[in-house]
Description:
eight-stranded mixed β-sheet, 43% helix
Amino acid sequence: MEEIHDKMPMDEYLESFNPPQREAVEFCDGPSLVIAGAGSGKTRVLTYKIAHLINQHDLEPWSILALTFTNKAAGEMKERIAKIVGENMARTIWMGTFHSIFLRILRIEHEHISFSQNFTIYDTADSKSLVKAIVKEMELDEKTYKPSSVLDTISRCKNQLVTAEEYASNPANVQSDARRNMPALAQIFQRYSNRCRQSDAMDFDDILLYTFLLFDKCPDVRERWASRFKYILVDEYQDTNFSQHQIVWQLSKDHQKVCVVGDDAQSIYSFRGANIDNILSFQDRYKGCKLFKLEQNYRSTQNIVQAANSLIEKNRKQIQKKVFSENDKGEKLHVIDTHSDIEESNVVINNIKRIKKAEGCEYRDFAILYRTNAQSRVFEDSLRKEALPYRIYGGLSFYQRKEIKDIIAYFRLTVNPNDEEAFRRIINYPARGIGQTTVNKIATQANLNGTSLWNVICFPEQYGLSISKSTLGKIVQFQEMMSKFSEEASTKSALDLAKDILHNSGILNDIYKDATPEDLSRQENVEELVNGIQEFCESRTEEGNEHIYLIDYLSEVSLMSDVDSDNGDDDNKITLMTIHSAKGLEFDTVFVVGLEEGLFPSQMVSGNPREMEEERRLFYVAITRAKTHCFITYAQSRFRYGQMEFSSPSRFITDIDPQFIDRKQTLYSSLNTRNDDVSLPWAKKRTSSFTSPRPFTPFQPEPLRRPASSMPISSSNGLSSSSSSYGIPASSAPTASQSAPSNPSRNGISAGSTVLHDRFGRGTVLKVEGQGDNTKARIKFDNSGEKILLLKFAKLRLIN
DNA sequence: ATATCAACCCTTTTT
DNA sequence: GGGTTGATAT
Length: 800
């Protein structure tokens, strides 16, 4: 059954492209590099190029390999291609993330790398827990060998295609480890690799490493896949790491039919091993490579594009290009100074309401983007209070919740009994009286005999496991139950087996025994998981697969992130996410929040110019998500690590050419300008007692610590409050009298006073009542609503 | 073997 | 501030 679109003449859609876009689509004879500026229609070009390959070059869809950055991007592109070439054609294209595509290939070729077909994928938590166990076993100091930093080293190596053996045999590594005071790193690395093998498990990096090794060690296998894929496309090439770069080469070096697309200005994943040099040096590796530059931005207003250009110009290392827009000039970017994280969130929300009312747009047109997930909380609180619909991406993803991980662990152990991390997770969940001591004994015997924990409990006597009769009984019971599940793994459908496991393992009993609010939420999650499995099975069935087993489901979810599982268009909500996860997305109105030194750019990168440039690119990505309105906000104070912290505006704000910016300042910020600092009597004393001093840089005036006690300040610096329609309404309050307070407990605060609060910002006192310690003020804050505060505790300062 | 409480780290970003 | 981990008591 052919789709109507199949018959659409190629010329017709080619006409809708600008010249470089069209050339990029049509050039299919050799290697090409497409530098695609933000919003330049990159995805459209890729989509039509694939359609073009099928329609005009008669390539079989299954001979096209298209690698994307996220599963979601792959899914969306597939849908769009299906609209052009038809569902049946689109379905067989090899399209997905590096990890999902090569996982598929590794499962097919598992014998060549000595893994079983059902090997497990360890997520980061599993990897950490394994490292921790190894460090403990080796009796190393757990403070020096933190799982995160150990794993960081291991990951870096694998991304560079360095195996544990190679690492250990290179004296340079051993020496540098000694210098880092971590001489056992090489040994931990080796143990880690062995244990993963023992468990028949791979971590994320292993998927790429073993793919490379497979192609490297088995030339016939490489040739088979290299000749199968007649054309290779890679999206977001600026975010590939060395191993990915090498795998692309392994598959494309014979025919050189490869097209990579990316934007060096949007390279933001070097922390994950991404190497911007891959894209910068692409032309050197592929001789005769054609270069196409997509420089017209169709997404954003001229002001947004030019502001972003002026920002990214401050970076040195980049491919020359001039991104331009022929859209409306648009309004300037709004930079809004706020007093606290709370005020920042209120300013954002007020603007959302205002714009929505003025333009009649939808909630889904708004996005709040931040540097770190922790920043979402304040916005979440405010949005909930205002009853506005929102969706937070990232943070604790669905699959990272305890109850879900427990269930997945059962699935994993069912499919692969050697999976050590899954084993440890569920051996005593639900509680069945097998405690830490017993598990340690099992683990010791497993290590001693070089086998898996599972094998030890299958043959306890053989492996010399000395435990009490009653404990042994419990272990045997567990072993028999899991064996039964395992036997069904290759016969029962994923959904049936999953339900079976939930019932017979005692998980359902455990989760449904109480009805506290937390229990209810766990129950909901479990139901959602079951629904997810059902949906997965149904969609696979629709695609024509006959049998869907648990391993198929596991393979899919182990590489799934929160952004991927987004059900997208049907929910009309304000989007909250990190800038990283916003890559590739666009919104009518974007709020980039938390533009403060130490937060964005992160304090982690200070003193490292290369990483500082990456932070700047991150900001570039954030701004270029906006189509019409772009707001940049910062807060002078915010809660971090349970403490109030004060910071100055990010240096990135001054990187943007001021002609594209409309700056709004609150009165409070004027009090806190650099020149005023020294004139304030308490400034010096407080700064010296600042608990975590940051390195001083020319961009960064020394942080100002505000007094903890309420201290009335009569300001006479003649600053007028700024009035604006951007969430900082003009003061309608009458000026307070300068006369001495009649009641000392009131510190001069009376109805009509304008006051400042550390967290709520500026407000007008409506009423003061009560006596002595019990004196309360009802205050209407400009951006935080009305509050009644005890003057004894409230950190208020009077301003006139 | 489990429950409770203190101590600790944390916050960069994710396939 | 909060979530997780480890020590201690029951």
